[in-house]
Design brief:
Layout: E1 9-13, H1 22-33, E2 37-42, E3 51-54, E4 57-61, H2 67-72, H3 81-96, H4 98-101, H5 108-115, H6 122-131, E5 137-141, H7 143-158, E6 164-169, H8 184-198, E7 203-206, H9 209-218, E8 226-227, H10 244-249, E9 256-261, H11 270-277, E10 283-288, H12 294-302, E11 310-313, H13 321-325, E12 330-333, H14 340-344, H15 348-355, E13 360-363, H16 367-376, E14 379-382, H17 387-398, H18 402-418, H19 422-441
Parallel strand pairs: 1-2, 1-5, 2-4, 5-6, 6-7, 7-8, 9-10, 9-12, 10-11, 12-13, 13-14
Antiparallel strand pairs: 3-4
Helix pairs in contact: 6-7, 11-17, 15-18
Length: 442
């Protein structure tokens, strides 16, 4: 009897705990929908299970292991020989170069983190490179996932699997807020490293046309990356429409709601949003998310000076975001233009708000989102660094004639249902995956 060919297997490599990460989950679900065996290889997170399932998709969170665990651990006690050598070299350089004296002396950890970027992920790499089973397709979400994808793909090919690698450039690696203030020499080194990894991948995809054009030039790619928008699946609002935010917070039916979705982190415009809401007498600001500034925002919500108009709710599952967005009058996506990424990005919350039929306020230097909003009449354009102008844009939506507000919400829903949805976006990606696997197996 002829032996059946093994079921096609895909691994989506996600360098975060998947709590949640909607793009990785949507990719995995779409591959599983074609009959693939799919695993998401993620990182561990506090209180999260080592393994769980989302339908046919298995999510495993792999802990770090190997020598890098000890190397990255902070040590107490007197400096070792490596630290003494670095300090001596620093003193020699500082005596000759005034610019060096403006910076604190580096530690061994500093030097290692710069030279071996991205250092913090290496214990995780060590684990998944050795313990994940071989696969036909590796989908690497971002620069922190591409190196282990390449290593595992090579091993998979030696074990009879196809070992195709798709690099998902979710942003421009060295143009994120993380690299603000880094010296240009280090950024050039990191870009060369990313370029070397990417050239070994079988295909490159990214999140919008602006990123595709920039990455094509920056990484000197042979062809322009395929675009896979971060759009949610089509969503049809129930009748009556959900009012989840007002229900959760006990707000009155007529209360105007300004919504912020996503990470509560520096350089996201949270300070400006708080100042803008203070200029609106009849609206509250509701933050739905988590992040480094969560405690600060919780304290702001509890501060009597906020006048009971600043609220914080926990993050919700990706599938539920459009229904929560639908409960708001307007969503703030006015990112300060602190990096190229923030000027070119089209984040999840932008698309999820449109799916919920909620108009958006975006920054005038957020060129990709601005073009869509301007062209289709989906919201207002503001200066995100100016709370007064931010308040002006919010009023433009919440104080509009009821008929115009209803028409704007209808335009948002129609744009999302017709064009900006996962079903439309994912088709070319699935065709690419099938073509790569077919080409490799033929």
């Amino acid at each position: 009897m002829a032996q059946l060919a093994p079921r096609r297997r895909a691994v989506v490599i996600v360098p975060n705990p998947m709590a949640p990460y909607s793009r990785g989950l949507r990719v995995a679900r779409s591959l599983a929908g074609l009959g693939w065996e799919v695993e998401i290889a993620a990182q561990p997170g506090p209180g999260l299970p080592r393994e769980e399932r989302d339908g046919a998709v298995v999510i495993r969170r792999w802990p770090g292991s190997g020598p890098w665990v000890d190397k990255l651990a902070r040590r107490a006690g007197p400096p070792g020989i490596g630290r003494r050598v670095v300090m001596k070299a620093y003193r020699i350089v500082a005596r000759r170069l005034a610019c060096a004296r403006r910076h604190p002396p580096p530690t061994i950890r500093d030097v290692r983190n710069k030279l071996l970027w991205p250092t913090a992920d290496r214990p995780w790499w060590h684990t998944i490179e050795r313990e994940l089973g071989p696969a036909d397709l590796y989908h690497a979400c971002g620069y922190r996932a591409i190196r282990p994808a390449l290593v595992m793909a090579a091993e998979a090919r030696s074990r009879g699997r196809l070992g195709v690698v798709i690099y998902d450039a979710i942003d421009i690696a060295i143009e994120t807020n993380t690299f603000i203030g880094r010296h240009g020499a280090w950024k050039r080194l990191y870009q060369r490293r990313e370029r070397a990894w990417v050239r070994r991948a079988d295909a490159v995809i990214t999140t919008n046309d602006a990123f595709a054009a920039d990455l094509h030039r920056r990484l000197r790619l042979r062809s322009r990356p395929l675009v896979l928008l971060n759009t949610p699946p089509r969503w049809t609002p129930p009748d009556p429409a959900p009012d989840l935010i007002r229900d959760a917070l006990g707000l009155g039916a007529g209360q105007r709601i300004v919504l912020y979705l996503g990470r509560l982190s520096p350089n996201r415009g949270l300070e400006q949003a708080a100042k803008a809401i203070a200029r609106l007498d009849d609206a509250v600001l509701v933050l739905v998310g988590f992040g480094a500034n969560e405690d600060r925002e919780r304290a702001r919500a509890a501060d009597p000076r906020s006048g009971g108009r600043h609220f914080l709710l926990p993050p919700v599952p990706p599938d539920d975001v459009p229904s929560w967005a639908a409960s708001a009058d307007v969503t703030l996506v006015a990112l300060p233009p602190t990096s190229l990424n923030q000027r070119l990005t089209t984040p999840n919350k932008f698309w999820e708000s449109l799916a919920g039929g909620t108009p958006v306020v975006v920054g005038r230097e957020s060129t990709t989102m601005r073009a869509i909003v301007d062209r289709e009449g989906l919201g207002a354009i503001v200066d995100p660094d100016d709370p007064q102008d931010l308040a002006r844009g919010l009023r433009e939506i919440i104080d509009a004639d009821p008929g115009e507000r209803a028409a704007m919400r209808a335009r948002c829903r129609l744009a999302a249902f017709d064009r900006y949805n996962w079903e439309t976006s994912v088709g070319p990606y699935l065709a690419l995956a099938e073509r790569l696997v077919g080409r490799t197996s033929s």
